[in-house]
Structure formats: C-alpha cells, structure tokens
Amino acid sequence: TRAEVHAVTDDTNKAYLKAVFRVMEIIERGVRTRRWPPPRNTRELDAVLAAIVDHLIFIDNENQGLGRNLHAAWLHVFPESQESLPSFSRSVLGWSRLQPPGEQQGLCIERWGAISRSMWENVHTRRDEESAVWYDLQKDTYCREQDMEGLRNTPQDIAVRHLPKGQVQVALFFGLSSRGESVKTSQQMPNQGVVVDEPWIASLLVQHLARVREGDKIFRVSREEVMERVAAAVARLNLDPLNKRLHVLRHTGPANDIATEKRTLEQARRRGRWLSLRSLERYTKVAHLVADLSRMPPRVVDYGREFLADPPYFAKLRPAEQISVYFEGN
Q1: CA-to-CA distance for 282 and 170, rounded, in angstroms?
Q2: CB neighbours (10 Å) of residue 84?
C-alpha cells in the first residue's frame, strides 16, 4: 500500500516515492484493464513486476536507468522482498545488459574541472554558490545525491578538525541511526563516514557551514537546482549535454583516483562505501576517461586544466555585498 511506503523516513524516500508510486499505478492500471489479475502473493507480484519491466523496455523504449531506479526504489521501500522477487531482479539485470549504462561512467578530470570553474565564475546568488560547493564536494567524497541532501549542520553529521598552518580536516557522516535514518548501504554498514580529501574543498565547506544555522540542512538547494547549474555550465562551454543526474559525480571521483593511482580499487571501494568491488569496477575503467577527454575541444581542456592547477583561485565564497540574493524568505 502507499501507506507502507511512508514507513521509510530518510531523505532517500523523496527520491524513490515517485518511482514506487509509478509501479503501483501501473499495477492498478493493469488490473483495471484485465491485463493481469490482482497479485495475491509475492510470487504473483514478481511476475507482474517482470511484465512491467518487459513493457518498459520493448514497448515504451525507456532507458535502462529507469529500471535500476525502479528496482532500487522498490527494494529500499520493501527490503523484506529482496529474496522473493527473482524474476523482477533478473529482468532489470537483463535490461542493463541490453542497454549498457555508458552515460554513468565518470567524467575525465578536465571536464569536471571545466564545469566546476564555469560554475564558480558564474556565481550571482547564494544558490549558485551553494550549487558549486555541492558539485565539488560530491565528486571529492564519492557521495550519492541523497547523502548530500541528508547532511545537517550538527556534530553528528560533520566533524571539523583544525590543523597547523590554517588547514582543516572535515569528516561527514551519513545514515545516522540515532535519527532513524538510513542510506542505500547503511542497512549493512550503519553510520558511514568519509573524510573530505582536498584541503580547498574542506576549507570551502567550513566557510559555507558558518552561514548555516545549527541543525539546518547543509544544502538548501535541491539536486535539481544543482543539475540546472551544471547544465548551464555545460552549455556555456559548448559541450555535449550530460545525463541529467548528478550521480555521475559518484563515479568521477573514484575513476580518476584509480586512473592516477591515488587510490587502489579496494581503497576507493571503502571510501565510496560500496559493498563489493564488482559494484565499483564497471565505473572505473581508464579507457572511458581517455575517451571522454578525446571528445573535449582543446580550449575547454586548457580551461579545465587551469582550474585544476589552482582551484582556490577560482573557487571562493563571495562576500555578502557581491551576492545579489541569499535565499528567498530569509
């Protein structure tokens, strides 16, 4: 029932509610049109879900990303059905093999740098600024979008350690069981955390936190707002449009770290909180980064490399008098 869906209380629920409701609506529509009988048990539900996947692939020609989202959403909301829907799971796996998820490979570091620089150079409001901080932080920490959305300015979510010479070390924590929260992998590994890698990103985050009231969400922009600004940067650079999901940043960080031997595959797996190496391997192939770089105009490559040579020169929080709007209603 729809009421059961609301038993999930973390912010992942917001992302998955629509997906689960969509499946329920398709089931109900199929029952009304007598396409299938009302499923009376999990075995019949499994058959109906597999039939829905088949229709989405071969009739609606939907992208396989939708299949992964529907599957993840259903199992997140109804984790007890993990072992009882084999046909549904197998159908989604087949969908991914029919349509390889090439758009989910990580960006080469030059493309990421060019986009980040363009975002920082076009900051006019606090929302623009916050979106740029989000973009850099998500790549650095290998986070999911729901991880970013759930962070709050509390000692339980974030820890700051001041180091010599003015540097800071920042640790982030996700899926806090003390608040009854969870993230995708926290059911297996509760209270997950990660330390921000780049000192300049850690410094930006600490400066940003000084503007956020204690207990409030660290990011008041939505993932859609951040993606709008990423798309605007891509358009300004005359690059091919990206997939309309920030999740590519979760793969950009480890792909480049492994390619440059900054981290081993196992170290990247632990940092990204993947349950197995298999989950990570398909997103971290060096060949995809080389191919991505080859598709970039030389002027944009140079533009991105200039940013990477000295990120703090470009990535700076603006003084209040240089920002036209903070947040509506504040």
Answers
A1: 29
A2: 14
Band (pLDDT 50/70/90 cuts) for residue 12 is low
Chain centre distance of CA 169 = 23
Instruction: Provide the total of helices (H) and of strands (E) in the chain, helices listed first.
Output: 16, 3
Q: Which residues contact 113 (CB under 8 A, 6 or more apart)?
A: 304, 305, 307, 308, 311
Residue burial 13-22, b: 16+ Cβ < 10 Å; e: rest: bebbbebbee
Mean pLDDT, to the nearest integer, of 19-26?
A: 80
Distance, CA of 48 to CA of 53 (rounded, Å) = 9
**pLDDT single digits (tens) 29-65:** 888 888 888 888 888 888 988 888 887 776 665 666 6
- Beta strand pairing call for 192-195 and 158-162: unpaired
A 10 A CB-CB count for 306 gives 14
CA distance 246 to 251: 10
Beta-carbon contacts of residue 219 (< 8 Å; ≥ 6 apart): 130, 133, 134, 148, 149, 151
Angstrom distance (rounded) from CA 311 to CA 117: 8
Cβ contacts of 190 within 8 Å, gap of 6 or more: 175, 177, 182
Can you give the pTM of this predicted structure? 0.69
The residue with tokens 């499923």 is 39
